[in-house]
Amino acid sequence: MEILIKFLVAAVGAGTPLLFGTVGEILTEKTGHLNLGVEGMMSIGACVGFMVGYYTDNFALAILASAAAGAFSALIYAVLTVTFMANQNVTGLTLTIFGIGFANFIGIFILNKTPEGTLKLPENITAAMRGISISGLSELPVVGELLFSYSPFVYIGIIIACISAWYLNHTKAGLNLKAVGENPGAADAAGIKVTSVKYRNIILGGAICGIGGVYCSMIINGGVWISNNVGGLGWIAVALVIFANWQPAYAILGSFVFGALRVLKYYIPQSVLPFPIAFYDMLPFLITALVLVISSMRKSGRINLPAALGLNYFREER
Amino acid sequence: MSKTTDNRQTEPFARIVKRAELPAGKIILLRLWAVLLSLIAGGVFIACVGQNPFIIYGTIISGAFRSVMAFQGTVKVMIPLLISSLGVTLAFKMKFWNIGAEGQIIFGATCATFFALFFSGINHVLLVIIMFLAGFIGGGLWGLLPAIFKVKYDTNETLFTLMLNYIALHIVSYLRDGPWMDPSSQGFPKIARFDKNASLDKLFGIQFGWLIALVLVVLIFVYIKYTKQGYEISVVGESQDTARYAGMNVKMIVLRTMFLSGGICGMAGMIQATGSDITLTTSVAGGVGFTAIIVAWLAQLNPFAILLVSFLFSVLEKGSSVVQSNFGLSTDCADVLQGIILFFILGCEFFIRYRFLFRKGTHKAEKEG
Amino acid sequence: MGGHEYDRPFLYFERAGNIMAEQGKNLYAIECKKITKTFGQVVANDEIDLNVRYGEILALLGENGSGKTTLMNMLSGIYHPDSGQIFIGGKEVKINSPVDAMNLGIGMIHQHFKLVEAFPAMDNIILGTQGKKEKNKVTSEKIKAISQTYGLEIEPEKYVCEMSVSEKQTVEILKVLYKGAEILILDEPTAVLTPQETERLFQILRKMKEKGCAIIIITHKLQEVLAISDRVTILRKGKSIDTVETSSCDAQKLTELMVGRPVSLEIERPIMENRETILKVVDLTVNKSDGSKAIDDISFDIRKGEILGVAGVAGSGQKELCEAIAGLLPASKGAVLFNKENLLGKTPSEIIEKGVSMSFVPEDRLGMGLVASMGMTDNMLLKSYQKGKGPFISRKPARELADSLIKKLGIVTPGTETPVRLLSGGNVQKVLLGREIESSPSVLITAYPVRGLDINSSYTVYDLLNEQKKKNVAVMYIGEDLDVLLELSDRIMVLCHGKITGIVDAAKTTKEEIGMMMTGENRSEDKEKEAQA
Question: With contacts defined as CB-CB under 8 Å, which chain C residues touch A170?
Fold first, then answer.
């Protein structure tokens, strides 16, 4: 029982960066733009957020900085694909290569300037990121640990996902956004400012991805900077969007399921299931691949894939 | 696209119009401008981290060419990049978004390694041929897999090939930690260095993979341009409906092309493992598969242009390692510069097909056009 | 931009009425003066003048490429004119965006519907309106109120992807009415409708006219111009040629104005002797991917030296029929006998080899028959590249073929290597049809070969088809324009929902009769009944 609770708690923790990445990418893809740069945006967010946290020792500033950095990197993507109508796949890949390179480069650059040769976040900020504790609630048995023991990131992530779900399904702005991703020509004819909707949502999506990135750099390694700290989570997030059927609410569930897959290896003793460690590491990717295949096999049901995904829009095309 | 200013009665500040197709000379000039601008932007970045951009750029170039050894090193970097760029070109020509070159490289290398480790005793020439075939078939199968699901269920190939990259990577780490672990490494997880008999020979001081890469440039060029299969790939890439109407077996073509595409990438992996690394590691691909996509796209899928672009990228890569040892900037600098160059070129493509019309200059611009 | 835009549908009749009362009937709803628009080198609109009053229906007539749609796109804020003035209700305006157009009371109903398929009708209708999202029920009530005013039928909750073409058009119309439009622009609204649906649309338009709306209807169908409009403005090659009262015109005069010289509207119909059956379709059934029947148990034959016309509303199974014969779609039942040999189960290239040639011109005109980015030479190779031994392709004969087609059909192109997407529509279709004909087929199936062509190019295509017929080729012609089908074909087969509702002698039938059959009135059954009686 205790190990089960520990496992679930760990799963939520491991799933949180995926949640940010997935929700950010859902908003982006709803504009009709497939941004393969999630990994890059998360890396840039990870780097900038970490460094701001390192120098200011302020948790809120670090998060804001990571969101701003993610938004800025998404802006590069938006300028290139929305205004300049560049190929979305190539632009996204470039953003990923650039983002990872940038994060690693800056990380090592600053690392080399420290006398100790390591980058470790100062005490205040690590305290702020630790699990919350609400007196009266967090001490409750089982429920306390399962619901009220996480880092603030977890709650921020869930709140962002819920707001996004409401935004997409119950507001005019969300309706406009979906129309742009489904049929930009129709949206344009209806008087929606297609370009502005695309910019706003791509940048918003980037900001959310950026926060997911800073989780990777600040939490996963206990506040110590290492290179490649996002480590492919951005790519899983891209796949999770499909798993979640472009619904932020499903993204919450999907992220935690995948988080569980990622931490499974620590909770299943070798004696029970004698799989090699590499197999557990592979599991999230293997399952994503299977999900991809299965979701493409069953064509029935309403699939939320935006109809204009991957296509750039030019009003005077003729 | 266009900003509406305060008042509805004013025209938008700028709008986009399509332009007549530019002559080739102007297109090249535009791209050179983009590269120049990106070098300036990269220079600003270098200046921001406290270095003199001219010295850094100079070091990159001299680092790649300063000696025979350095040049050989540059070529060594280029071999896998060039071959896998050629590989993905086939898939891209067909508009099949194979971003799984990384996995195809790894799996090709893994299959070749099997023979390098366990059949190292047989005749050298025979072994090399077997390893080539193993690399090709391994990579090919890894490319075929997403193609099968694509033609059968229309599974998104971009994401599927991507997942296969990581799966291939973890297969190698499994082999490294388990069945293929070097017995003499005292528990340290690594695969043994290959026997000399199982490593590629050298030609002019570099492993002879470079010769294969050059031959492949010509072969792929001819294949795309002058063969029936190449013609089929172009038609399928342009419109699957048209291909069907012409009586082509689209599914077959997709499968065949992806097998070839993956196979060539697998060969790149085999050449890297048996020619340069002389062992198999998890970083046998090391991002080359992703860079290859960018190289292929930059070169507009023209094999000779791919040769040029991959050489330039290798200069950047090799030069960056010298920058690292001389100035303490990490080799990730190469990725950052690559990214910046690409951002500019991606943006410049726009000006080849479209142009901005500004409010005041409307009439003037129109006359020029 | 006011906050209560959605109240307007209930107010605007009064408003339009007031304006009319104040300033008399001579006030123009729209007046365009010297509108010019260029695309790159192409002058799409050259100093065009146009005006329409409230309570009037103006037809805008012109061939494809005469600049009709460009002009209307400028009125709806999608394009921006390079020069010229637009007046709405007497005031000069600049229309910079669809929002501007909407606020000025202009609503455009596009030829290709601008609807989000994945939304219900309701969401499409409120798209782009200001204010907060209301409860679905409230919106639904408002929509129903408007539709009752005009006698429109709609289910607000129904998804667009599940609607028929005419239902979709209703949604388009409601979209602009909901936003309070009093100037309606309809771009080729009847192209996808049956004659009966067209009549229903015209009734709706007349009702709107009564309520004081100004309506511009773009079309190239002369009969419809004569039936619905009060005045006609004619465009030719981007210029406004003339504006005339409809009552003072006939079809012949309008055609002359449109083409710029007298034209004979007659199509030749040579009669060939000795028409033996070459292709026989027996009990053919073809399923769609969702399991429903695209072609439902049909039988017919195609004979040498005749043109078999195929009529039907778009999406009645024309495409599937073509694809099944060409071996591109598997049939679930039946047979296609070519000289008594079953073609079903053969690969497309084997069928091409046998001399059955199929050219389908899809809506975007380039999607299926030609490769847009390739030159003529490579496009010539498309169906014949497999010929010749060895793995290499031989381009020389293709280049020669391309050269000879350029001369023979007068194709205007800078060279055989120029990508075909840069050619004009007429030339593209000549390339396509020319290639099919050059393969000297014995059966030529052609679908929509004059789609989007001007009158001259269309007649070139009809001549080409007749020439094939005289060579004893069996031609199956799938067309849209019933007048042309009636004149060109020897027999006409009518499809409705994948079934044949009749095969009639073109010389002995009427447009009305075919129209009835297009909507499912089964003529052959009637005939049988008559015979029995």
Answer: 133
Do C110 and C170 lie in a common domain? yes
C462 at A interface, C-beta within 8 A: no
Low-confidence ranges of chain A (pLDDT < 70): 137, 270, 299-303, 315-318
Mean pLDDT computed over every residue of chain C: 81
Domain with C239 in it: what CATH number?
Answer: 3.40.50.300
B201 by DSSP, 3-state: which? coil
Q: What are the tokens at C67?
A: 């600049």
- Looking at the structure, do residues C17 and C101 belong to the same domain, yes or no? yes
From residue C508, alpha-carbon distances to B360, B366, C77, C196, C492 in Å are 63, 56, 48, 21, 10
Give yes or no: residues C44 and C153 share one domain.
yes
Pairwise CB contact (< 8 Å): B346 & A86: yes
**pLDDT for the residue numbered C2:** 39
pLDDT of residue C363: 58
Number of domains in chain C: 2
Q: Which of C508, C513, C475, C467 shows the shortest CA–CA distance to C494? A: C513
C413 part of a folded domain: no
Question: What is the extent of the structural domain holding C102?
Answer: 5-259
Interval C191-209 mean pLDDT: 83
Cβ distance of B247 and C82 shorter than 8 Å = no
Between B107 and C114, the higher pLDDT residue: B107
pLDDT in tens, B158-213: 888 988 998 999 999 999 888 888 888 777 888 888 888 888 887 777 778 888 99
Q: Specify whether the CB–CB gap between A154 and C63 falls below 8 A.
A: no
Structural domain tally of chain A? 1
pLDDT for C22 beyond 50: no
The alpha carbon of residue A179 is apart from the nearest alpha carbon of chain C, in Å, by: 6
Q: Å from A167 to nearest chain B CA?
A: 24
Interface touch C119/A189, C-beta < 8 Å: no
- Would the CB atoms of C391 and B15 count as touching at under 8 Å? no
CA of C346: which chain B residue's CA is closest?
B247
Q: For chain B, how big is the Rg over CA atoms in Å?
A: 23
Asked if residue A293 belongs to a domain, the reply is yes
Is the Cα dihedral B109, B115, B121, B125 positive or negative?
negative
Chain C positions touching A179 (Cβ under 8 A) are: 116, 119, 123, 127
- Distance from C-alpha of A296 to C-alpha of B273, rounded to nearest angstrom: 36
> Residue C521's pLDDT is what?
65
The answer to whether residue B361 scores a pLDDT higher than 60 is no
Nearest chain B residue to A34, by CA: B158
Of A90, A109, A293, the CB nearest to B346: A90
To the nearest whole Å, the CA of B211 is away from the closest chain A CA by 29
pLDDT at residue C527 greater than cutoff 80: no
When scoring C116, C178, C421 by the number of chain A Cβ atoms within 10 A, the one with the most, hence best to mutate, is C116
Confidence at residue B145, expressed as pLDDT on a 0 to 100 scale = 95
How distant, in Å, are the alpha carbons of C206, C215, C231 from that of C51? 19, 11, 10
List, in order, residues 6 or more apart from B241 with CB less than 8 Å away: C362, C367, C368
CA angle C265, C269, C273 (to 5 degrees): 175
Q: Which chains touch C (3 or more CB pairs under 8 A)?
A: A, B
Interface test with B, best of A33, A35, A72, A93 (most B CBs within 10 A): A93
Same domain, C58 and C195: yes
C117 has a chain A CB within 8 A of its CB = yes
Could you tell me the pTM of the whole model? 0.84
pLDDT of B44 over the 90 cut: yes
Instruction: Name the band, by pLDDT with cuts 50, 70 and 90, for residue B3.
Output: very low
Give the Å distances, CA to CA, from A94 to A80, A196, B291, B339, C330.
11, 23, 9, 6, 43
Q: Are C210 and C300 contained in the same domain? A: no
**Within a domain: residue C411?**
no
- Where in the sequence is the domain holding A22, given as residue range(s)? 2-297
Query: Choosing among B88, B97, B151, B156, which should be mutated to test the A contact, i.e. which has the most A CBs within 10 A?
Result: B156
Q: What is the pLDDT of residue C26?
A: 61
pLDDT of residue C523: 53
